[in-house]
Amino acid sequence: MRRFLAMLVAAMLVSCGGEPADITESPTAFLGVVAASVPPASAPRVEASPDGVTTWLAWAEGDNTQQTLAAARVNSVGVVDRMTVVPMAAGVIRDLQITMIGTTPVLTWRHFGAANDVTVNAASFRGLDWQMEIAALASAQGADVKPVTLPSGRVSLAWTRLDGVGNFELVAARRGLDGSWSTPAVIRHGAAGMVVLRSAQSSDGAGGLMAIWSEAPGAGAAPPETLLSSQYDETLGAWGAAVVVDPGQHYDQAAVSSPADAQWVAAWLSGGPPASTALLSKRFTAGAWSAATTRVDLGQDAVLAEMALTSRNHHVHIGWIGRPVGAASGSVRAAAFDATAGAWSAPLLIGATAPGVPVGLRLSVEQAGTAAAVWSVAQGGGGPFLNKTDAAGAWQAALQLDPQTAGVGPDVSLFSPSDVVTTWYRPAAGGAADVVVRRLR
């Protein structure tokens, strides 16, 4: 029966234009190619649908002058249905994300056209096709434009745009359940010459929303930078005044998550540029940010290259990549936030490479608190790798997702604690790449 199911899935994939899947852990686990020999432009994204069946993927194809936005729907046995979201157009796509609203996938991204032609965009798959929902003016300022899902099923998206005289504005719009977007509301209007370096949002379980951002007196300016925050007031329907989270440092990859209703934790890499040397955090509780700064890492790594902070249902996890100075090796570590104790757990080593430096860390967590991390390897062989927590919350041994061919740009999502789906690029002939999907159960 197992062999018959594997042959059946392979035949179905061939009939729909994909490559045969390699059935691995169970008759309904698979490793297959979603799109073969595409020109890689940015890392693919993956999300597991709450239906427990459908995997959604999206990626950009093209070079640095023109790109198309593609997507795919993959069923529980690996059958691929590939789609075009946006046909080939001038410019590049950045900050691509997938957000599941029930079983409806919503894509958000920034499109960089000419120097002053930047838009933030959203599209959703409803009925039988992708439908564009918003294309709003944006700017190149600010990084990591990511949507936040609210308990109501609505989505908040924040980005940076320029006002009439060239000063930045950090704004946010909300997506309604019908797919319509609100008029962008201004969170922060920057003074002349100020630039936004990072921005992020997080929602708690009660519908509260917190935005954070770092700003500096000019592009490329050395500290002092300032990390600020604003809360959305549901009663007033407006964003509150900016509050200083922390002043005077460099706030690389700053992010925020919620460990409890009306509580948040902010985290950032500090010590650079040119190199970050510490992972720091502050907690927001009782209506204020803590005065003290907590160090999340314990100095095990001389240089910290990447950080990923994520949460769901009050389960907050953080991961980071560290390496020795000048060495082609590195480590991936993780910690979890305990809302009751108000503290981070001790860092755990969840992956290491030598030779090779871990890169492209992505972190996901599902409703029950199971966390999964993926990363690839630069300056060495192997990868991408996956690690996840077990039923007791302990990280396991890292798994190489494709032992045959090294891949890059991985992403991960969880259907359940024991059902994980991943995607990445792997090299193909002629300088092209394959978009790969793997589901493990």
Briefly note the structural class of the backbone: mainly beta
How much beta, percentage-wise?
over 45%
User: Main beta sheet, described?
Assistant: 5 strands, antiparallel
Distance between the termini: 18 Å
The DSSP helix count reads 1
Query: What is the radius of gyration?
Result: 21 Å
Task: Catalogue the unreliable spans.
Answer: 1-25
Textual characterization of the structure:
A hairpin with a 2-residue loop joins β21 and β22. 3% of the residues lie in helices and 56% in strands. It is globular.
Structure summarized in a few sentences:
With 441 residues, this protein is mostly beta strands. 3% of the residues lie in helices and 56% in strands.
Key features of this structure:
globular, mainly beta, 1 helix
Secondary structure elements and pairings:
Layout: H1 2-15, E1 30-38, E2 45-48, E3 55-62, E4 66-74, E5 80-90, E6 92-101, E7 104-112, E8 118-126, E9 129-138, E10 148-149, E11 155-162, E12 168-175, E13 185-189, E14 195-203, E15 209-216, E16 226-233, E17 238-239, E18 243-247, E19 252-260, E20 263-270, E21 278-285, E22 288-289, E23 294-295, E24 303-312, E25 315-323, E26 330-338, E27 343-344, E28 348-353, E29 357-365, E30 371-378, E31 385-388, E32 399-400, E33 408-416, E34 419-427, E35 433-440
Antiparallel strand pairs: 1-35, 2-3, 3-4, 4-5, 6-7, 7-8, 8-9, 10-11, 11-12, 12-13, 14-15, 15-16, 16-17, 16-18, 19-20, 20-21, 21-22, 21-23, 24-25, 25-26, 26-27, 26-28, 29-30, 30-31, 31-32, 33-34, 34-35
